[in-house]
Amino acid sequence: KQWYQRRVVITAGDGAKVEVHVDQYDVVFSNAYLSSTDTSKEAEVNCTVTNSTKKPTSITVTGPSGFASTFEGTVHGVHTLAGKFSSVSSDSSMTCAIVYDNSPKYTDSKNIEVVQITPMTSQTWSGGSVYFTVLIKAVSFNVNTDITWFINGKVLPKGATVTDTYTTGDQLKSVLKVMGAHKDGQVDMVLGGMHNSSHINLTQTLDYYFIGLKKVIAEKDKSTDVVCKLESYNGKTTPAITITAHHGSVKDGEKQGSGTNATLTISSVKVDMTTTCTVVVGSTTLTETSTISTYKFTQTINGVAAS
Q1: Which of 28, 33, 165 is nearest to 92 (CA)?
Q2: For burial by CB atoms within 10 Å, which of 73, 78, 191, 250 has the most?
Q3: Using the 8-state DSSP alphabet, how is residue 104 labeled?
């Protein structure tokens, strides 16, 4: 928040009275980001004055080259100077200067940062949570305050957290964790650009899926099936599924397959068993365990077991 003074002259019957009013205004001026692969090399920049009913005397933006204005005016009480710098190939600085009448000039300095940014990773699962990672290289300062993650258009909804790891003068690793994701959606990460300055936007699909492996109750010495399903999966990568059954260190059966479901048939169940289903989707591995419980059916006639 900044301040400017304005003089108001009130003429009374006994002479002139001068009052000095102090008004407040806000300046919005953001860092601009370009990808090193951006062939346009144009950095779009906005400098905005809000919370002021009076139009500034002047708004001026200077930077690494001549500033080409694309808009200057007032809309709904917001005073804006927008434009761009051309031929930006390296990191540089820029300044926005605000002048109100005879008040001291206010200046705000920001950066134009040319970064190397990797595509957002596809989701990985761990401990019931989904993770997305972005690596931003060639950063001259910690850009974490200019990163915003969205899920389905909402900024960090409940259950989502971000961990940023910055290596001084080198890179920043930003990881989004979505705990217990229960529906499909879209994940976006925006670097800069919250106020219409140049920004970088990365997008990835959030595909909620889980393993369905039910407990089986089987009659002893009879055949039974163990079914494993990858529920609610909409991805393009074909999953690999492995089902195993064992008791102690003895493996009683194994079935490998591809797709979203597989069935392991055990021809004669002798003892209680533990079942395990492992699903591999790309670089993500999901595992679920369950059991096979046995029972013995015995028919009696007049208290005598029938054979």
Answers
A1: 33
A2: 191
A3: P
Q: pTM of whole model > 0.90?
A: no
- Sort strands 210-213 and 199-206 into parallel, antiparallel or unpaired: unpaired
Q: Are 114 and 36 in contact (CB under 8 A)?
A: yes
Q: What span, in angstroms and rounded, lies between the C-alpha atoms of 38 and 191?
A: 14
Given this model, what pLDDT does residue 164 score? 95
- Position 116 scores a pLDDT of 96
User: Which tens digit of pLDDT belongs to each residue from 65-86?
Assistant: 999 999 999 998 899 999 999 9
Q: By C-alpha distance, which of 232, 226, 196 is closest to 213?
A: 226
**CA nearest to 134, candidates 160, 106, 115:** 115
What pairing do the DSSP bridges indicate for beta strands 304-305 and 216-219? unpaired
Dihedral angle sign, alpha carbons of residues 130, 123, 169, 143: negative
Contact (CB, 8 A) for 251 and 244: yes
Which of 206, 180, 35, 181 shows the shortest CA–CA distance to 121?
Answer: 206
d(CA 48, CA 42): 19
pLDDT lower than 70: segments of the chain: 1-22, 181, 194-196, 302-307
DSSP state of 138: S
Give the C-alpha distances (Å, rounded to integers) separating 265 from 54, 101, 226, 240, 262: 79, 85, 6, 18, 10
Q: Are 218 and 293 in contact (CB under 8 A)?
A: yes
Four-residue CA torsion sign, 152, 155, 157, 162: positive
Radius of gyration over alpha carbons of the chain, in Å? 32
